[in-house]
Amino acid sequence: MLLRVWMCGSVKQFSQAPLSGGEEQLQLDSPPRHQRQDQQQQLSRTSPNQTTSAALSHRQSSRSTAETSWCLLTRKMLQERTRALQIMHTWNKVMLRREGETGVRGLTGDKGDLGEKGERGQQGECAVAPKSAFSAKLSEGLTLPLTVGDAVRFDKITLNEQGDYNTETGRFTCKVPGVYYFAVHATVYRASLQFDLMKNGHTVASYFQFYGNWPKPGSLSGGSLLHLVPGDQVWVQMALSEYNGFYSSTKTDSTFTGFLVYSEWKHSAVFA
Question: Which intervals carry biased composition (Low complexity) (predicted)?
Fold first, then answer.
């Protein structure tokens, strides 16, 4: 029987031939003649038991050496394979991080089928638009300011739900940003009248009515659109002390009115 043993990249062959009496003798494949003669002489001088033990010991040693060499070779191959896999994994990660060029936009797909009708949602709260409005008039027989720059105090409230107009000062204070319209309707009697519509101390518009000793009262009206932000104030102011012909009676009134046209609240909460 022929036994091949791998050792350090070389192959050695051993031939095993049966000897007389059932014993086995391990011989090297194709050794030199003088070595074969020496081995035969030694074997002839050695007892059968010693020959068998030596052969088995040599065979086990050769097999152990071959197995060790094979294990080392296998381990080295596994290490190289693991290292190659690690390099490949790292390269794949690097390549995945790279962004390629944007591809051509694909064709528009067919329109899908309509989905099922959803359940009816809960009823939400009704939104309330911001509000701001007032109207006030002069009381009968009210003594008007005679000093230039004084605000005319329209002291009798007709409407002031948001409380934006103050009867003590005669001024409207803005709370909701937006565009407002203000109007003044005056009854002129016993004297000429000139007043200004003011915003934060600046004249917006001026109005004048001459009184020519007419037997009956006359009228003077004016109005203006104003853009306001919270904190702005608007009022009616006397322009000249001698032109103070505001008049009010049971049959005729002098009024100051203002209201919000539209607000500029963006993403605001609901205002009542």
Answer: 38-48
Position 94 in a domain: no
How far is 240 from 206, CA to CA, in rounded Å? 11
Q: What is the DSSP letter of 227?
A: E
Statement to judge: residues 67 and 149 lie in one domain:
no
Residues contacting residue 251 through CB under 8 Å, at least 6 positions apart: none
CA distances to 164, 196, 203, 238 from 174, rounded to whole Å, are 7, 19, 17, 22
Q: How far is CA 71 from CA 3, 53, 66, in A?
A: 19, 27, 9
CA distances from 132 to 153, 156, 160 (A): 19, 18, 8
Cβ neighbours around 117 below 10 Å, total: 6
Task: Quote the tokens at residue 128.
Answer: 């309330």
Q: How many CB atoms lie within 10 A of CB 165?
A: 24
Distance between CA atoms of residues 10 and 62, nearest Å: 13
Domain with residue 244: its CATH number is 2.60.120.40
Range of the domain at 216: 133-263
pLDDT for position 208:
93
Nearest 5°: phi and psi at 37? -65, -40
Give the predicted TM-score (pTM) of the model: 0.53
Centroid of chain to Cα 98: 26
Instruction: Give pLDDT tens digits for 30-88.
Output: 456 656 566 566 555 555 555 566 666 666 677 778 778 888 888 888 888 888 888 88
